[in-house]
Specification:
- It is a single chain.
- It is built from nine helices and six strands.
- The chain is α/β, with parallel strands linked by helices.
- It has two domains: 148 residues, 1, 4-beta cellobiohydrolase (TIM Barrel, Alpha-Beta Barrel), CATH 3.20.20; 35 residues.
- Strands 1, 2, 3, 4, 5 and 6 form a six-stranded parallel sheet that branches.
- Helix 4 links the parallel strand 2 and strand 3.
- Helix 8 crosses helix 9.
- The protein is globular.
- One of its GO terms (molecular function) is hydrolase activity, hydrolyzing O-glycosyl compounds.
- Keywords: Carbohydrate metabolism, Cellulose degradation, Glycosidase, Hydrolase, Polysaccharide degradation.
């Protein structure tokens, strides 16, 4: 089936399902944020190493960290894809308990430096299967040196991934780099040009919901001084698309 017909059929079906995202709406609004049970177990294990008895403070830490702070599920290996099946079954059960959709955050890592054994296609198939859930998918390209020798293939494969993750219950984002790295004007201009090229080559009706950036190692004391990179980066992208 042609991509246009397949996407249209999926959109027509998914709009009747809980996980569908209305055009122009915020996919992160009015949802139940799914927290993987595997993450909760890891949190409990870590806390237990530092707290010897179950005090009121211990219970509070468990509640805040494990239940109120959802995390994304990383998909990077065969094992990750297998884990995802269990995650989606669990999330689907939780979603049926309420009237709002359950949001599952996925990070598809190491694109496009993947092979068929890494089960990236399986992830796309599962997204369509679980139409009762809502997904926020972040595609993370691999800047490895071996990809530098094949920049056009790198771009085409990212476009392919974005296109194949399209579904009415899915918002697709592209990783645009580290927030600290994007604070430098030279990097912003180069990144904006690359992102514009990737987005410009995505076949319609597929689309990218937005960009993501990493804030790892960004200290809260200086966060305010780093707020400008994303706004400036957005300006660079606008200028690039208009040129």
């Amino acid at each position: 089936m042609p991509a246009e017909r397949s996407y249209a059929a999926g959109s027509a079906l998914a709009k009747f399902l809980v996980g569908a995202i209305a055009p122009g709406s915020n996919p992160f609004s009015n949802v139940y944020w799914y927290v993987p049970t595997s993450w909760q177990k890891e949190v409990y294990s870590s806390i237990a190493q530092y707290v010897s008895n179950s005090t009121g403070q211990f219970d509070h830490i468990q509640s805040v960290v494990a239940f109120q702070q959802p995390v994304a599920v990383w998909i990077a290996t065969n094992e990750s894809a297998d884990d995802l099946k269990r995650v989606l079954k669990d999330a689907s059960k939780e979603g049926r308990k309420g009237d709002v959709p359950t949001l599952v955050q996925l990070i598809v890592y190491n694109l496009p430096d993947r092979d068929c054994s890494a089960a990236s296609s399986e992830v796309a198939r599962l997204i369509h299967k679980y139409a009762d859930l809502r997904f926020a998918v972040i595609n993370v390209g691999n800047p490895a040196s071996k990809c530098a020798q094949a920049p056009y293939a790198h771009i085409e494969l990212l476009q392919y991934a974005i296109t194949n993750f399209q579904a009415a219950n899915t918002a697709v984002y592209l990783y645009s780099g580290h927030g600290g790295w994007l604070r430098w004007p030279d990097n912003q201009a180069a990144a904006a040009k690359l992102v514009s090229e990737i987005v410009g080559g995505i076949p319609k009706p597929a689309r990218l919901r937005g960009l993501s950036r990493s804030c790892v190692d960004t200290m809260f004391e200086i966060q305010s001084s780093r707020e400008w990179p994303l706004n400036t980066f957005a300006w660079f992208i606008k200028e690039e698309r208009q040129s």
